[in-house]
Amino acid sequence: MVRDVLLPIIIGMVLMLILPSVLDSYTLTVLTAYAMLALSLGFIWGYAGILCFGQAAFFGLGAYAYAIAAINFGTPWGPFFIAIIIPAIFAAVFGAVLFYGRLSDVYLAVVTLVMTLILFKFMNSSAGEIYKIGKARLGGYNGIPGFETLSLPWDPSEYLYDESLFYFAFSLLILVYVLLRICLQRPMGRILVGMRENEQRAELMGYDIRLLKTIAFTIGAAIAGLAGCLYANWAEIVTPSLFSLGQSAETIIWVIVGGAGTLTGPILGAAVLGFTKFLLGQQSVIDNTLVLGVILILAVLLLPRGIFPFLVQIWQALIRRLPSPGGGRGRHNQNNRKQQPDSYHNG
Length: 347
Fold this sequence. Notes:
This protein has helices at about 1-20, 25-45, 55-75, 75-100, 105-125, 165-185, 185-195, 200-205, 210-235, 245-260, 265-280, 290-300, 305-320, 330-340, and strands at about 130-135, 135, 145, 150, 155-160, 235-240.
């Protein structure tokens, strides 16, 4: 238990210190926000079996909630928590309706997609003077610019930007990752995995599947809202494109390519594909969507479990080839391998 908590923290802190020497902090910050968004979907889909096509809706709600609250309240740390709470409340109500209504997986995916499209359409149509919340105008397709961004709690004049914003965002990513790992090692996490594998059996064992799905859905929405808050502080503007179908599709692609059923995989997929998107954005010869589509097809065909599980398999194969302390080439490790559950479910 302690090892599973300390190891991600150590690896995360090392990466946090090394990455700014490889990439600029501006790019790293938005990649961290994307990784947080992918992690939220990776949790509810990979472990609870809830395929949500509307994760971008919670991402956008978090960003808009922060911007609106920052304009109305001025102090940025209140809006920071509001950006997490609003998507969580919305998901709790919406999820309860869906899960207690016993919608099948296909209908659930369609309804969450429609929810995202409705929000996207509404935000694009909110350009009039009547569309305002307090002092904040929604702005239609132009979005909401010019709101107060996060600053140091003890010094409001010192804003978080560039490297300081990246360190803050990456620290939150490590924290959320560790909390999710702890949750998955608790009884609730094991029940979620069992529910994913056989929902009917879990229900026959006496577990309230609808309540557990609602809780998992709410947690995923809160994490996506946090990602939206970080994105809003990075971009310093929020627009309806955050609710777009493209954003929802990209999030699903990140999880599939990185490795659904793991926590590390979605983060890796978001980082790799997000950076690829930035590189492709610097040219106009090849369409970005076409490239992402090709990557998705190749990943599904060649790496059906994703990049991270594939890397784990390679690492385990290398370990088995090493001579064991008691002699015999890798026999000790192979025996351990048979006794231990697949690490892919814990990653």
